[in-house]
Write a structure and sequence with these properties.
Structural class of chain B: alpha+beta
Number of helices of chain A: 15
Shape of chain A: globular
Largest interface: A-B, 55 and 52 residues
Number of helices of chain B: 15
Radius of gyration of chain B: 26 Å
Strand content of chain A: under 5%
Radius of gyration of chain A: 24 Å
Number of strands of chain A: 3
Mean pLDDT of chain A: 77
Mean pLDDT of chain B: 82
Number of domains of chain A: 3
Oligomer: heterodimer
Strand content of chain B: 5-15%
Number of strands of chain B: 7
Helix content of chain A: 55-70%
Largest sheet of chain A: 3 strands, antiparallel
Structural class of chain A: mainly alpha
Order of helices and strands of chain B: HHHHEEEEEEEHHHHHHHHHHH
Helix content of chain B: 40-55%
Strand order of the largest sheet of chain A: 1-3-2
Distance between the termini of chain A: 55 Å
Chain lengths: 308, 336
């Protein structure tokens, strides 16, 4: 009798150890913080986590859904893995950092000097303009720490919740960080840096969230300057269709680009094209003062081209 | 790309997978930067020695009974389990005809449900848990994907779902429906609605008469070898009837032909196909598929091919319509 047969007989007992192990692995791989501020997970923490997973309400529904959706034991294990991830993500969303991230997203949406872009565009713009902060979060943390329009001090419940703050101080923090970066940041990176300024330490794994694909980019005052637009068009005109297709994979390797960009080249040939494109882009942008505007104009051109 | 589960990754890191599974994970890691990052950043081992003591949370009997019983034919208002190859789902039957069933997909774990679902309370459904019916996703599925019946939902709840489904359908047809949270269940239901039998392998027909002549085997000798009348051999030569499984074996042996080449792919009558697709046969068809080491889809086609000569022998090619259900029952009973 398979495990799935047991579930379909409403005999849940054989599945409990597997669920327990899946939860332990999820905690370990996703760096889920121990409850109530423990340094490490204790046996009773895992016991509570399992009980929460199985608790009345969602617990039975989870198990019945597994019994319904799975077609064999291997499939069941895959579905259980997803269910555990969603369960852990739901818990993690109640932590301070994800709450902060949602707040930041709202604030950024209203800031006129910020645009929100998708991952592909982030990849393009990050590559073209990464020299200023170079991926070193410590630099940005230092900038954030120096912002004087600060959030008020921590309250008595600081270990559990982020300190109350206001829109102006958040905007000042974000603006300073984005200006220092001079390049797009993923919302997760921005949240981590603001979180450090607020002394909110990492308490969960970004990868558990659905919303990691969003990036934010600080811009000059829109619209893009005419000179930047002219330069962007010049660069754009030098590119052929394969280059344009590959523009969003500048950060990625040839393997990914060959698979997703669908330019009809094998992995190694794609890598050669990518390397060539990178050096041409670097050359074209070398010494340009309003790089951000040029990149924004390139992003716009790429978006228009994609629509066609 | 299918990634290893978190559990597999953690067990891989600790050397707890068997050689074969470890090799699969290793090969995946070679090509997947995301999983490599997870493994590189993994926390300390936390395998516990304790035996989890959580109580089994739930028994309603509805699930168990549904999966244990041999199902009848679907009726409106019944909750069914659909399953075909790598997809499975729960569905509420709105209407059923001889070959297809009009359904609304239903979910139990309602995390992804939004305001467009119709809720069926635990007391109104047969599973003892709350259900959410995706009324914007009404679709027809072939009878053959129906797997297990859990009984009916409360009549009032069914009416509510049916009315909401009719409204949502008109929205969908006007192109205004927003798919959004439907995506996963829509994909599964879409694949289930497209389920079909295994394609018959294409092959050129073999000229049995010529083969017999080439080997110098007379009709009478062949009839003796097949234990049939000479007239039936002529019918086989002319393709007027398909050979039975036993006759296929004997023909292959006598005429020195690969047995697989003799398994012809005759046209399956629609009424026979509908009969084979009835949910009641699924348990025994699955047993048959397991025994033969083939897919359920292939087992259905095989059953159809096996049924044709039995029907021809029982009723003759022109003598009335065969009772396929009876013939299927007899043939499957022969399987033991």
């Amino acid at each position: 009798m398979t495990l799935l047969d047991h579930l379909r007989q409403e005999d849940w007992t054989p599945a409990i150890p597997l669920i327990d192990r899946a939860l332990c692995a999820g905690v370990r791989i996703r760096h889920i913080p121990a409850p109530s501020g423990h340094a490490n997970w204790l046996e009773e923490d895992y016991e509570e986590l399992l009980a929460e997973f199985l608790a009345a309400g969602r617990g039975p529904a989870r198990l019945v859904q597994l019994a319904i959706d799975a077609v064999d034991d291997q499939h069941l294990r895959g579905l259980l893995d997803k269910t555990v991830k969603w369960f852990l993500a739901d818990r993690a969303r109640e932590d301070p950092l994800p709450k902060l991230r949602r707040t930041l997203r709202t604030i950024l949406d209203r800031m006129p000097t910020v645009i929100v872009v998708d991952t592909a565009t982030v990849s393009l713009a990050e590559y073209c303009h990464r020299d200023q902060w170079g991926g070193d979060e410590a630099k940005l943390v230092a900038v954030a720490a120096a912002v004087t329009t600060g959030p008020p001090p921590w309250g008595a419940d600081a270990a559990r919740e982020g300190p109350p703050t206001d829109k102006e101080s958040f905007e000042a923090l974000c603006a300073a960080i984005l200006k220092a970066a001079g390049a797009p940041l993923s919302l997760n990176i921005l949240t981590r840096i603001v979180g450090k300024r607020l002394q909110l330490h990492r308490r969960w794994d970004d990868r558990l969230d659905d919303d990691v694909s969003v990036g934010v980019i600080a811009t000059g005052s829109p619209p893009v300057s005419a000179s930047a637009r002219v330069l962007a068009v010049e660069i754009w005109d030098e590119l052929d269709d394969q280059d344009r297709e590959l523009m969003t994979y500048l950060d990625a390797g040839g393997r990914l680009a060959a698979r997703e960009a669908r330019i009809g080249l094998a992995k190694s040939a794609t890598q050669v094209r990518l390397d060539d494109l990178k050096s041409r882009m670097a050359l074209a942008l070398d010494g340009v003062t309003d790089k951000i505007d040029v990149i924004r104009a390139l992003i716009d051109l790429h978006a228009e081209w994609n629509k066609r | 790309m299918t990634h290893p589960t978190d559990l597999e990754l953690a067990q891989f890191v600790d050397g707890l997978l068997n050689e074969q599974d470890a090799d699969v994970v290793r090969r995946h890691l070679d090509g997947c930067a995301a999983c490599r990052a997870l493994v590189a950043d993994i926390g300390p081992a936390n395998w516990s020695r304790r035996v989890p003591t959580a109580a089994a949370p739930f028994t309603s009997g509805g699930l168990k009974e549904g999966f244990a019983n041999v199902p009848g034919d679907p009726q409106p208002g019944e909750l069914w389990h659909l399953e075909w190859e790598e997809d499975a789902a729960l569905a509420l039957v709105l209407a059923a005809d001889l070959s297809s069933v009009h359904i609304v997909p239903v979910v139990v774990d309602t995390d992804a449900a939004d305001e467009s679902v119709v809720w069926i309370s635990a007391d109104d459904g047969p599973l003892g848990v709350e259900l959410a019916a995706w009324v914007g996703l009404v679709i027809s599925v072939p009878l053959g994907v129906l797997h297990a019946s859990f009984g009916s939902v409360n009549a009032a709840a069914f009416v509510q779902v049916r009315q909401a489904a009719a409204t949502e359908r008109s929205l969908a047809s006007s192109g205004d429906m927003i798919i959004g949270g439907y995506a996963h269940i829509a994909a599964v239901i879409g694949r289930l609605s497209a389920a079909k039998w295994a394609e018959a392998p294409a092959q050129d027909p073999i000229d049995l008469r010529k083969r017999a002549q080439d080997l110098g085997i007379s009709v009478a000798t062949l009839a003796q070898g097949l234990a049939v009348a000479p007239g039936e051999v002529t019918e086989l030569f002319r393709g007027q009837r398909a050979p039975s499984p036993t006759e296929v074996e004997a023909l292959a042996n006598i005429l020195q032909i690969d047995v697989l080449k003799l398994r012809r792919t005759p046209t399956i009558p629609e009424d026979m196909e509908r009969s084979i697709e009835r949910p009641a046969w699924r348990p025994r068809l699955r047993d048959r598929a397991r025994k033969l080491g083939i897919s359920e889809a292939a087992a259905r086609r095989q059953l159809a091919v096996d049924l044709l000569p039995v029907a021809a022998r029982t009723t003759g090619p022109t003598r009335g319509r065969p009772d396929w259900n009876q013939l299927i029952a007899e043939l499957l009973a022969d399987d033991g």
